[in-house]
Amino acid sequence: EDENIIINPQFDDGLNNWSGRGCKIALHDSMADGKILPKSGKFFASTTERTQSWNGIKQEITGRVQRKLAYEVTAVVRIFGNNVTTSDVRATLWVQAPDLREQYIGIANVQATDKDWVQMQGKFLLNGSPSKVVVYLEGPPAGTDILVNTLVIKHAAKTPPSTPPDCEGAAFGVNIVENSNMANGTNGWFPLGNCNLSVGTGSPRIIPPMARDSLGPHESLSGRHILVTNRTQTWMGPAQMITEKLKLFLTYQVSAWVRIGSGSTGPQNVNVALSVDNQWVNGGQVEVADDRWHEIGGSFRIEKQPSKVMVYIQGPASGVDLMIAGLQIFAVDRYARFKYLRRQTDKIRKRDIILKFSGLDSIGNLGTLVRVRQIQNDFPIGSCISRSNIDNEDFVDFFVKHFNWAVFGNELKWYWTEPQQGNLNYKDADEMLDLCQKNKIDTRGHCIFWDVDGTVQQWIKSLNKTDLMKAVQNRLNGLLTRYKGKFKHYDVNNEMLHGSFYQDRLGKDIRANMFKTAHQLDPSATLFVNDYHVEDGCDTRSSPEKYIQHILDLQGQGAPVGGIGIQGHIDSPVGPIVCSALDKLGTLGIPIWFTELDLFMSRENAHLVNAEGELNEAGKRYLALKQEWLSHSHGYVDEEGLFSFRGFSGTYNVEVVTLTQKVSKTFVVDKGDSPLVLTIDL
């Protein structure tokens, strides 16, 4: 269990078992006139004459790593030379399957420097049965040496379940901000920087809507506010220490009214921020472009005991006055929210169902027993999958049993299907789609294009306008012709609120034209916009208002936008804040889907099953929710031959027991608001 699968991990046996990947390697006991010494042991290795970022030191570990076992990697590294002071260093696995398929798996990375040794850590698991496995270090630009002191790969220790947070004595809904209503002048507040604080009047007297949804009936606000003048930096504003008032692991909702004075040129960003041991934490943002009062809302959660927490309000440009009224920070009672959501679910997601039985003897109606069990809820719940996942039969079993939709992590993205111009790779996506189709799992096509500059291949960036337009057309034709009718949804151009690569080069019409062409090539697919931080109040670039305007602009140009994608990467979800965004988006009258809630690739602890295949607490909650979303009922047929119950849409089995027979039938309930009458012929 504790054995290191790396041979000669500290180079005590020279460079035996190590080699260069496209470069040379050397052994040292010191470098740079004795300024660089090993952190531990007597030796370290260096890579020299690196001409590509993927050049580095490697070791073959075939046969020493087993599939479906979690491993952890630890390395001590630094960089040297070429005037590079800091660079990303990555540990990567090159894996070759028996059919010669190659796969590169990033297993750890760290920001290394030329000043000192740093430790790199990560975990990995092999899903398939590889014929060859090589671990290597890579990353820094050509000409920069990678130095490695030790490299260790061991079985990962089983992660113990985390302790449930201690919510004992939590004062839910109680404002922790002192003198929020300014009844005592500016007591409790201090200016951040050399701005001036005073008390103004004439602010709203009701608490903002999102806070009202959380707190219920609430006393009126005072009508007083903090007026901040003489601001000479964007970060200047009112501040208050709240260190002792916070409890770990609780989600806190932030709410206030904000307004800016005259003198601003263009929209201003206002931010409720927290300084947690001098680290900035976002408590909510809003963009203000007029002299009205605006609601600001957000949330945060602290998981490590801080020594100092300060809340402050900042954002507008130098010289712009800032006003804040009724700032509230309060712990959210999630269990109360769950009760409310269950009531809402019963009201919105269920409908009245009346089973009308024909073929019953009217005399025997009253003794007829009915048992109704829902087999499947048709509410779409999907999972992200990758090509490597589907080599693991345990993963596949869990996936097909518990999900009815899928999205591919990277395998449909343009940088995956055409990494170099003309070098097409649809093999991974084909195999994943085949698995989904065989198991009747619907799929989302993510994504045709991605408008964020950093996600675009270098060969695309090097094209002139004419060739880029041709490449875009080829991408549309190639992808949508190949998979016509196979993907139910497409994210046409991902994250247009956060990037504009194609629009900047091809003009404003290109976005709408992508939608139009995609619809012509595959009319059966629903075409989505897809973006992040729409629903959590923490990013003014993608507020619900801006998303709505973005969609209206596309529709105004004739783009057939059929769905709104909300990625769902929310750090500290608060129901009323999310609902407020959804209600605003709902005015457009098109379907809203959470599309990436919340993928493990962006959050370390977002899995449902551990490496050993055991359900963790999140997995248990998920399966319990799936059970909760199944409707069951039993009772007797009434004198008119009817049996009524309230249930979710989906597939049901009904068992009817009379004195003389037992009959079992299957029926389907579609979504709808009005009562559904189903005739069941016995």
Number of helices: 12
Whole-Å distance between the termini? 61 Å
How many strands in all?
34
Overall mean pLDDT stands at: 94
Keywords: Carbohydrate metabolism, Glycosidase, Hydrolase, Polysaccharide degradation, Repeat
InterPro entries: CenC_carb-bd, Galactose-bd-like_sf, GH, GH10, GH10_AS, GH10_dom
Active site: 596 (nucleophile)
GO molecular function, one term: endo-1,4-beta-xylanase activity
How would you portray this structure in words?
- By secondary structure, the chain is an alpha+beta fold.
- It folds into 4 domains: 19-155, Sandwich (Jelly Rolls), CATH 2.60.120; 174-332, Galactose-binding domain-like (Jelly Rolls, Sandwich), CATH 2.60.120.260; 335-445 and 617-681, Sandwich (Immunoglobulin-like); 446-465 and 488-600, TIM Barrel (Alpha-Beta Barrel), CATH 3.20.20.
- Helix content is 18%, strand content 35%.
- It has a 7-stranded parallel beta sheet with strand order 23-24-25-26-27-28-29, with helices on one face.
- The model has no long low-confidence stretch (mean pLDDT 94).
